[in-house]
Design a protein that fits this description.
Shape: elongated
CATH architecture of the largest domain: Orthogonal Bundle
Number of domains: 2
CATH topology of the largest domain: Endonuclease III, domain 1
Helix content: 40-55%
Largest sheet: 7 strands, mixed
Oligomer: single chain
Distance between the termini: 80 Å
CATH class of the largest domain: Mainly Alpha
Bound molecules: iron/sulfur cluster
């Protein structure tokens, strides 16, 4: 085995590890971005940042992070928070399950450990939302525990360093990658090393155009040596999105509109608020669906008005087109079923409720049209 092969990552040559860490750490000290969660070792702050950064760009997270920490500066503050306020602060970041897990986890840790974040991976095994990556990222950065991390950027760097061709989503590739990430860890500055690996992937070893001439690892990078670094690792083309057609309805009664709360167990946007909406049936028009959905999901009879707005948005692999109508309440009382709760509120009160981004766009469009006047 030469000193930079890693066919069996558990037996990573010590020389490679000793070569890699100082180079990566020197590069990190010079080139890391100035991010608000980088400059202290508070596990709670690191944890919040890591959860927000899942599936979300750094540029988007920064403002949310500062607002969230200003409102909930400690784990104890978050543990005592109201879920609706947490969701409202999270609004626009997406993947709201992360926010609910963060809150559940804060309550659990507060109950078990009195508001401190335990420096022990075993104590965190059954905590909601704390998977291997997040747990190891927090513990390595806050307490310098020798724990590896693996996420999109570090996966790319490791795969290229060793010219691994497998799709990283396969079980075999994942196992190899975890072993490699662990085998390469230094004995000190583990948190910085983990961050450096991710930062190199984010800034230099990018998916389409890795900037190999500026990379501190290029002299031992097998993908660079191959002349086609961007070919590693193999990527399966994404599945084309599925088109979904939806109708929604803003029901007015006098100066108020009806807002309904999604079920706590919904797959997405659980416990958040919205205007009633749902998918079209086969052969149904948007207008027919709007009337049907109002009846099925709220128990109310309505008189449908004109089209208010069409909103196009993507959720995971779905591309959704939502056509929203105005409607006037005619009769009936709200019946809890799909929606658990309903409120009649003045449009200006919408600001206080956590809603999804497309629903916030709809609320803003309501505000832009004449929110004070009656529509019919
Ligand atoms: S040399 Fe190029 S391919 Fe290799 S790790 Fe650096 S940027 Fe990535």
């Amino acid at each position: 085995m030469n000193d930079h092969s890693l066919d069996s990552p558990g037996e990573a040559p010590v020389r490679l590890r000793r070569w890699l860490a100082p180079r990566l750490l020197d590069w990190f000290r010079l080139h890391q971005r100035d991010l608000p969660w980088r400059w202290d070792r508070d596990p709670y702050r690191i944890w919040v940042s890591e959860v927000m950064l899942q599936q979300t760009q750094v540029a988007t997270v920064t403002a949310y992070f500062e607002r969230f920490l200003a409102r909930f500066p400690t784990l104890a503050d978050l543990a005592h928070a109201d879920e609706q306020e947490v969701l409202r602060l999270w609004e626009g970041l997406g993947y709201y399950r992360r926010a609910r897990h963060l809150l559940q986890a804060a309550r659990l840790l507060h109950a078990r450990h009195g508001g401190t974040f335990p420096a022990d991976p075993e104590a965190l095994r059954d905590v909601p939302g704390l998977g291997d990556y997040t747990r190891n990222a927090v513990l390595s950065q806050a307490f310098d525990l020798r724990l590896p991390i693996l996420e999109a950027n570090s996966i790319r760097v490791l795969s290229r360093l060793f010219a691994r061709t497998e799709d990283p989503r396969t079980t075999t590739a994942r196992r190899w990658l975890w072993q490699a990430a662990e085998a390469l860890l230094p004995t000190r500055e583990v948190g910085d090393f983990n961050q450096a690996l991710m930062e190199l992937g984010a800034l230099v070893c990018t998916p389409e155009k890795p900037n190999c001439p500026t990379c501190p690892l290029r002299s031992r990078c097998q993908a660079h040596a191959s002349g086609q670094p961007e070919a590693f690792p193999r990527r399966t083309p994404p599945t084309p999105p599925t088109e979904v057609r939806e109708a929604g309805v803003v029901i007015r009664r006098g100066e108020q509109v009806l807002l309904v709360q999604r079920p706590a167990e919904a797959d997405r946007w659980a416990s958040m608020w919205e205007f009633p909406h749902g998918q079209l049936h086969e052969g149904e028009s948007h207008e027919q669906a709007a009337v049907r959905l109002a009846g099925e999901r709220t128990g109310l009879t309505i008189r449908l008005g004109g089209e208010l707005q069409t909103i196009r948005h993507g959720v995971t692999r779905f591309r959704i087109t939502l056509v929203c109508f105005e409607a006037e309440y005619e009769s009936g009382e709200f019946v809890a079923g799909y929606y658990h709760r309903a409120v009649w509120i003045a449009p200006e009160e919408l600001q206080a409720y956590p809603v999804s981004s497309p629903q916030r766009r709809l609320a803003r469009s309501l505000a832009q049209t004449n929110r004070q006047r009656r529509l019919f």
